[in-house]
Design brief:
alpha/beta, Enolase-like, domain 1, TIM Barrel, 2 domains, 16 helices, globular
Amino acid sequence: MKITSIRAFPLYASFARQYGGADKVPPSMLAPANHFRLVPRTGQHATIITIQSDSGHIGIGEAFGLPHAQPTASLVEDVLAPALLGQTVGTPADMLAPLYAFFVALGHTRGPSMEALSGIDIALWDLLARQADKPLAEYLGGAVGPVDTYVSPVPYLDTPEQSVQYARAFVEQGFKAVKLKIGRGVGTDMAHIAAVRDAIGRGVRLMLDANCAYGVGEAIELARALKPLDIAWLEEPIRPDSPEELAQVRRQCPVPIACGENEFSPASFEALARAGATDVLMPNITRAGGVSGMLEIDRICARHGVALSPHGVGSCIGVAAAVHVACAAPAFAVYEANLLPNTLRSDLPLAPMPLLDGKYLPTRRPGHGCDLDWELLASYDIRAAKVRQEPA
């Protein structure tokens, strides 16, 4: 089986389109977390990748799109596709190892280059599983079954009462675990955290995500204040690029630490685990090496006694692939069901994956099972939109 075609589709689904005008978009959508205060989040982004073989099968992958999908699409079509066309499809990690080494030699160890490789890896695994007529989970040696989730996010809202209302709505939908965005100062954070914890009760797990808002001292201050509140984990309290500093926070933190959504290689996850910096590793399959990367990170988790809880931001393709890998990953604990409105997740698949009583129910169709509405996808394509806007 040889590769005959590789294509990339940079997608942008604006909140203005979803809400019927820019003036109708809720402020909490534009700045749902700490890192969007300076650069507002105006919509959802993803790069969809297709790989076709001479057998006629097509695999579909996704590269992480934020803050813009165009860079990964260009790298896929202009750099990676020419190197892969005509190759026999084998083990994806082996196929992509020379291209990984190429990017590393250029200093591209993070960012769009790694995300482009991740998307291609997902597409190759999907292609192999479809060729074998097996669900991806089974092709990887696992079994298709319900996948436990926690729901996110309760975004930045003005008052604790609003956060309570938002969190309660999730619990009423059947979720047994909820994640609250924090990072607005210890005092403000604690007011929202305490109110949400009291409202949802101790029977519902409460996760916190600071999105790198704090320095070491403030993170420790916050963590100590959390001790009586039965917090499941504190995610990314500081910047993710110093395992030693994060380990310092963890040593003085009475609640578990989680991190990893901003890492790009198994080596980075190994460094976090080896430093004793975390209790939970959170790779995003669309940026941390695809299916191959997540399987390797699962092995890292098993070696160090750390839980695997994949990051859930992305389109329906990334979600479907991650859920199937979760079914085959021994260290898997819980998956993030990110419910920030995203038409690339909810409307793009021909048959959305059910999310019932806090569990994703992956399909038994071949591959990751997510087939797309290609006509709708074309309406989100950034390049097509630019062509439509050009004057005659």
